[in-house]
Structure formats: structure tokens, C-alpha cells
Amino acid sequence: MNDQIKEEIRQYILTEFLPGEKPSNLRDDTALRTSGIIDSVGLLRMIDYIEERYKIQVEAHEAGVENFDRIEDIAAFIQRKSATGA
Amino acid sequence: MSGTVSAAPRPGGLPAPETQAEHSKPEFRRFALLAVQLGFFVIAFRFVDLGNSAIFKLTCLIVIGFCISYWLPFRLKEPFFILYSLAGAYVLLDPVSATLLIAAGLVMFGILRSALAYRWRVAAMIGLAAIFVYVRATHGLQIPKAFWPAFGTVFMFRMIIYIYDLKHSSQPAQLNEYLSYFFLLPGYIFVLFPIVDFHTFRKSYFKRDIHTVAQTGIWWMFRGTTHLLAFQYLVRYGLLHTVGPGKGLLASRIVLAYFAYWPVSGSHHLIVGMLRLFGYDLPEAHRRYLLAHSVLDFWRRINVYRREFYIKIFYLPLYFKIRRGGELRAQLISTAVVFVATWATHVAQYFWNGTPLFSFGEAFFWGVFGAFAMVNVWIEYQHKKHRPETDWASRIRKVAQIAAVFVFVASLRYSREIDWAKLGNRLVPGLHLKTAAPAGPTKE
User: Fold this and answer.
1) What three-state secondary structure class fits A31?
2) Of B279, B287, B319, B438, whose CA is between 20 and 30 Å from A39?
3) Residue B159: what pLDDT?
4) Which pLDDT belongs to residue B5?
5) Are the CB atoms for B272 and B284 separated by under 8 Å?
6) B354: domain range?
């Protein structure tokens, strides 16, 4: 489940923010927010995608770098939210 | 690199203790390599003037602390870091200021840890802050001057983050987390301290192998040192004295106003690099801001920690509240609020540091910056997808954009140095605005 989410998020980021980039260059622990790959506007777009795709509701305090800086963090967050049914 | 341990992370994404312990395992050869490099910093800072004599003392403390902490068992590393940092306050500050700082911190922790409802704890903190502001403004209680900049640096921004995170935390405030987050050794001497995020700070603790994290930290320390040295070069050779209206060529004054930012980026790289030596895998504080190709891109690259602070505390809560009314509208309003908050917090920061408070130049700087950023938000909204630009025409266009952003930011920074009241008095007969000395060239 977690691996599948990671792959989906990776594909989304590659398509939306890093077109032309090799998938192998975007690792699970690559910093996305703090490295500038995804800015605040990009983050909002990604949250829209995640809310729609995984049927979860992201709150403002959950949208910080602690959950949205790395693919592994994003996947873990989605899994936690899905598990609690939020 | 030991990165094979994959114990389940704790709630909130904190690494599992076994993972952290694995990442802290010492290796003599790799330690020696790190220690030798740090030794060079100690020697260099002994003889080179970086504009702050306390940097040498701080670096000695950091290197000694690293050499002890490195060999301690994992469970003792954090208690050591806390005690060492508290004791360090007495080395880097005068005893009265150090005692007051720790006492103020403990009083605030007592309020935040109390059984009061969250809103009452926040109200008590606001009341306490009002008392501090009053004492600072009136120079009351014979508090040493050195106390206030350190107090502002240690508590102003990080307390806002801490209180915000506490609201959404499932557990009450923890003393070890509180002390390790606030009482960081470099925070006692650098008034331009990066606004470290609480969650990021906690979550980054021994998240990766210490040798990799520390080596990057050393590289950032070196990077920071070059910025500080370059700034000292400008000062020593009198170039920076040309900053300000009516001195030297206008073009050189504008360019130098830009480079007056080096002490900020330099100290941030140095500070974050130092914290990484203790296992905090913190992100880069500045990302090659000279290569920004738009105003928004500049905002994203410069002072990354500060930007994340505004996004977390102002932008996201407001955006999420109003996004149903339209995405672009919400983005524009949130961006405007962020820039108003940026101006207001800079003014508050000057208050603690004892520099002049309100100036037209400061408001003009953030007003123009914010207006351009909003235009950029609108443009980016219209062109959501970025395609890679690899042809020569695109590259040349990008270089031109980078040059334009440089000129824009440098001019805007220079505008902060202008005595707007004096200019107004000259342009409008009968206007008698009070002129004020600018707060100095080094500003965030």
C-alpha cells in the first residue's frame, strides 16, 4: 500500500513539477519543499490532487514541511489519514 | 553509510529510537575526518575577523561539544546537548543575561505545560509578552542590554511556532523538546537566527547517518564563512561605507546594498551547519538566491526557514479557510497577508534588537516586494505547468531574467537605506517629517 502511494506521488511530481527528469533521480527522501522543487503554490496543487485521489481532507496545520517535504513523508501521511478515515 | 535500519517511525513522523541509535553509531576514522575539518575552523576563526568576536568562542564550544556528544551512547546525546547548551549561555552571555534568559524560558514553559485550557495558556503568554515589551520599551528593571537581542532571537519566532504546534499536538509540552528547541548555542550570539521549525527540528534528529549529516554541515559552515568573510572584505576596504544616499556611484551603491545581505546568509549557513553536527538533519537555509529568475523565485530561495514560517503560520491557515471562494483569490489574499506579516515581524525584530522601529523605507520595501510577488502568483497561476526549457533562446531569456531580478532586488534593498523623511521634506515644502538614522545596512 505504502509503496503504491509512493509510486503514484512520484509519478505526479515528475509529471507536474519535473517533466523530463529521470524517475531514479527523485528518491523517496529527496527534499521537495525545502529544496524548492515544490513551492507553496505547487504544494496547494499537490494537496488538491491528494485530497481527490485518496479521498482525505488535509488540514492547514498538516500541510507543513513535516508531512510534505519528502515522498516517504507524504506517503506515510496519506496512509495515516486514510487509516483514521479523516 | 548506515541506512539499512527501517524501524517504524513514531507518530508525527519522528524516527524510531532504534533507527536514531543506528544512525548515531560512531566510527573512529570518520570521526577523525570530521574533527580535523572542524579543527581548521577553530584555527581560522582564531585569526580571521568575521565581524563577531563571539564566533570563535562559539565555534570552540561547538567543536568540543561535538567531540563529546559523538562518543556518547544515543540515549545520553540529547540530555548532554540540552545541558551543554544551557551551560553555554553562561559562556556566551553575561551571567545575569544568561540566568534571566533561562528563567524566562522556564516561566514560559510552566505556562505552556500547565493544565489551563489552550486559549488561556495563549492568553497568559500574550500577557507575559506584553510585560516583556513594556520592560524593553522603558528600559526598566535594570536588565542588561545584551539580554534583549538574545531574548528576541531565542523566543520571538520560535515561540509562535511552538504554540501553534502545541495546539495540534496530541501530547502536552515536553521539557526536553522545549529546552533543546529553544536553547541552541548559536542563538545566544546571532541575532539573525534562522527560524527553525519545531516539527522539522524534532523529526530531523538522527534521521540519517550522523557522518553524512555532519559532513554536509561542515560544508555549509564553510559556505557561511565565505559569505561572512566577503562581507568583512567589503567593510574593511571601505566599500560598504558607500551604501547610503549621496555616497559613491549610484550603481555601486545599489549593488553593495544587495551584498549587505551576506551576514544574514552567512550566519544562517554557519548556524545550521553547526546544529547538524549534533544530529539535526536540517535543510539548507538559503538556496543560491543570486540565481533567482523571478520575484517569487527569489522569495523561495532566500531565507527558506523564514518563508516556511510565514507559510505555516499565515499562508496555509488563511488559504485553507478561504479556498472555497476561489483558488486564485485565496492565493492572492494569503500572499498579501504574508507580506504584511513579514513587514510587521521585521519591525518587531528590530524592536528586540534595539534598532529604529518604523521607517517608510521598510514599509516601501515589503510593500513593493509583496505587490510584485502577487503579480508573480497571478502569472504562475495562468501558466501552471512548467516545461523544461533547453533551447538557447530560453537560456538567454533566463539569464536576462536573473539579471533583472538582481537589479530589482538590489534597488529595492537600496531603497531601505534612503532617508525617506528627508526626501519628503525636500520635495514637499512645509512638510516637517522627523528624519531618522537608518537601522544599518545588514537586514534580513
Assistant:
1) coil
2) B279
3) 94
4) 45
5) yes
6) 291-427
- In a domain? residue B391: yes
Return the number of other C-beta atoms located less than 10 Å from residue B323's C-beta. 17
Residues B328, B264 share a domain: no
C-alpha cell at B339: 507580506
State the smallest CA–CA distance between residue B225 and chain A in angstroms: 21
Task: Classify residue B444: in a domain, yes or no.
Answer: no
For A21-76, write each residue's pLDDT tens digit.
788 888 888 888 877 788 777 888 899 899 999 999 998 888 887 788 889 889 98
Dist. CA B34–CA B27, nearest whole Å: 11
pLDDT attached to residue B120: 94
pLDDT at residue B238, rounded to an integer: 64
Instruction: Provide, as residue numbers in chain B, all residues whose Cβ is less than 8 Å from the Cβ of A73.
Output: 13
A2/B contact by beta carbon, under 8 A: no
CA–CA dist B109, B174 (Å, integer): 9
- Is the Cβ pair B317, A67 closer than 8 Å? no
Give the cell for residue B189. Answer: 550570539
Predicted ipTM > 0.85:
no
Contact (CB<8Å) B312/A64: yes
Among B264, B286, B308, residue at a domain's last position? B286
User: What is the structure's pLDDT at B33?
Assistant: 94
d(CA A63, nearest CA chain B) in Å: 7
Domain ranges of chain A: 1-14+39-86
Same domain, B244 and B374: no
DSSP-based three-state secondary structure for A27 = coil
Set of cell numbers at residue B107: 516561566
Low-confidence ranges of chain B (pLDDT < 70): 1-13, 238-250, 356-358, 384-390, 417-444
Chain A residues within 8 A of B296 when measuring between CB atoms: 39
Q: Judge if B178 and B299 occupy the same domain.
A: no
Q: SS3 sequence, chain B?
A: CCCCCCCCCCHHHCCCHHHHHHHCCCCHHHHHHHHHHHHHHHHHHHHCCCCCCHHHHHHHHHHHHHHHHHHCCHHHHHHHHHHHHHHHHHHHCCHHHHHHHHHHHHHHHHHHHCCCCHHHHHHHHHHHHHHHHHHHHHCHHHCCCCHHHHHHHHHHHHHHHHHHHHHCCCCCCCHHHHHHHHCCHHHHCCCCCCCCCHHHHHHCECCCCHHHHHHHHHHHHHHHHHHHHHHHHHHHCCCHHHCCCCCCCHHHHHHHHHHCCHHHHHHHHHHHHHHHCCCECCCCCCCCHHHCCCHHHHHHHCCHHHHHHHHHHHHHHHHHHHHHHCHHHHHHHHHHHHHHHHHHHHHHHHHHHCCCCCCHHHHHHHHHHHHHHHHHHHHHHHCCCCCCCCCHHHHHHHHHHHHHHHHHHHHHHHHCCCCHHHHHHHHCCCCCCCCCCCCCCCCC
**Are residues B232 and B51 in contact, defined by beta-carbon separation less than 8 angstroms?**
yes
End position of a domain, from candidates B237, B271, B286 = B286
Instruction: Tell me the whole-structure pTM to 2 decimals.
Output: 0.81
